[in-house]
Design a protein that fits this description.
This protein is α/β, with parallel strands linked by helices. It is built from nine helices and eight strands. The chain has two domains: 157 residues, HAD superfamily/HAD-like (Rossmann fold, 3-Layer(aba) Sandwich), CATH 3.40.50.1000; 65 residues, no CATH class. It has a six-stranded parallel beta sheet with strand order 4-3-2-5-6-7, sandwiched between helices. Strands 1-8 form a two-stranded antiparallel ribbon. It holds the Pfam family Hydrolase.
Length: 237
């Protein structure tokens, strides 16, 4: 069944939780890093072909999906015998903020919203990306799933987050590129759930059938001087 249009009245929202990779930042960096750069370095270290390295590592990566190991740089450094943080620095020129993110963060701050970066990313990844993008100062708090001991894919995550950050789910928005994480947030009762379909500058944008999708956060900024925007049922990609 098609989703009805979603009216976002910013007067009814106090708190905004935002994911990082694919949501605020271009996921092209992460996709290139894990799918191409790490296998390349692994192949060089172990004297095997890049194709063989890609197949082996992709199996290893998939085995840890929806766990904290998935984003734990120390875990992968130990598993692969590579210094993953150092390898990230080799391609850090690909780390980029999505268009209109800064404008959206400024809009939220201007209107007194509490803004939290809520991510599965490991602290070492956060340090690299926040240093290069300089977006950290826009947030009232930065919470890694590793701090809470649960990934966002776990239904218990959002309640545990509430113990660390006070928020009313009925007056909270979550922006995410992961439909799995949006679903666990919906089950917890977070009311405003926004799917970021343009997660990468090099991939075709995704269209969610379960959540209202946007390409850019500018779509959530009112343009008429008011405090309301409406997201249509669906949009082309």
């Amino acid at each position: 069944m098609p989703l009805p249009p979603l009216k976002v009245d910013w007067n009814l929202i106090d708190t905004v939780h935002l994911d990082m990779d694919g949501t605020l930042l271009d996921r092209h960096f992460d996709d290139h890093f894990w799918l191409e750069h790490v296998p390349k370095r692994y192949a060089e270290k172990n004297g095997i072909s890049e194709h063989a390295a890609q197949e082996k590592l992709h199996r290893m990566f998939r085995s840890q999906e929806q766990t904290l190991n998935w984003t734990d740089l120390d875990y992968w450094s130990a598993q692969l015998g590579l210094d993953i943080p150092v390898l990230k620095e080799e391609v850090n020129h690909l780390i980029a903020v999505h268009p209109f993110v800064i404008e959206f963060l400024l809009f939220l701050r201007q209107h007194g919203k509490k803004i939290y970066l809520v991510t599965n990313a490991h602290s070492k990844t956060l340090n690299i990306k926040l240093r290069l993008t300089r977006i950290g100062s826009y947030f009232d708090g930065i919470i890694s799933a590793h701090d809470l001991g649960l990934p966002k894919e776990d239904p218990l995550f959002w309640g545990k987050l509430q113990q660390k950050v006070s928020y009313d789910p009925e007056r909270t928005m979550l922006g995410e590129d992961s439909e799995t994480n949006l679903e666990t947030a919906r089950r917890f009762g977070i009311r405003y759930l926004i799917h970021v379909g343009r997660f990468s500058s090099t991939a075709t944008p995704a269209q969610s059938e379960s959540f209202h999708s946007i390409h850019y956060f500018s779509e959530l900024i009112p343009r008429d001087g008011g405090m309301c925007v409406e997201l249509a049922t669906s949009r082309g990609v």
